[in-house]
Amino acid sequence: MTGRRRVGVVFPAGQGVADWERRQAADPVPSRWPYGLDLLGSDRVEVSPRATRSVDRFTRLALAAPGLDPRALRRLRRPGDDPLDTALCWDENTALAMVTQVAADRYCGGVIWVTDAAEQGTSRRYLAAVRTALRGMDALWVLSRPQVGRLSEWLGAGAPPVHFVRLCAQRRRTHPRRSDSR
To answer: How many domains, the chain?
Structure first.
């Protein structure tokens, strides 16, 4: 590998890094970017934020089309696109925008709500669009172990690997016992 890997952290429309950085400068938020994703950068990895637009109805309908090859989205690059090595996003709603608006060689993303939405009767077209976007990615992560199996089953055979990611090291807290003496 020559040079630094280029990783784009994709944020949804209206939730970009600029406002977060201003808030962080005033010290009310814990890191420069949401979820501390700026900390992914290193001497070998250049990390930059990418903003997306809302996904229009036409794009959602196209993604929901039966039989669409989810990896075909990578072939829709425009002339002059300079693809990132990797694009990643925090959630499946942003994944819809990421795979259609951000050029990258690899796509990775978090999944938070879609398995619950599928069980709650959310629009079949919306779920089909999300499934297509997620199936076209290289890796997915979830924040709870039980979600690994649920998401893998929902995506079906041929889907990218789903990983459990622990957000941060969790320390065991010891709570002082109440004194029995009164």
So the answer is: 1
pTM of the model: 0.79
| Separation of alpha carbons 108 and 94, rounded Å | 11
Q: Is residue 153 part of a domain?
A: no
DSSP H/E element including 22 = helix 17-25
What pLDDT digit, counting tens, does each position of 19-37 carry?
767 766 777 666 777 777 8
* Residue 3 to residue 7: CA distance in whole angstroms: 13
Task: Copy the structure tokens of residue 65.
Answer: 């089309």
Please enumerate in sequence order all residues whose Cβ is within 8 A of that of 5, keeping only pairs 6 or more positions apart, or say none: 44, 45, 46, 85, 86
Angle of CA points 94, 138, 143, to nearest 5°: 60
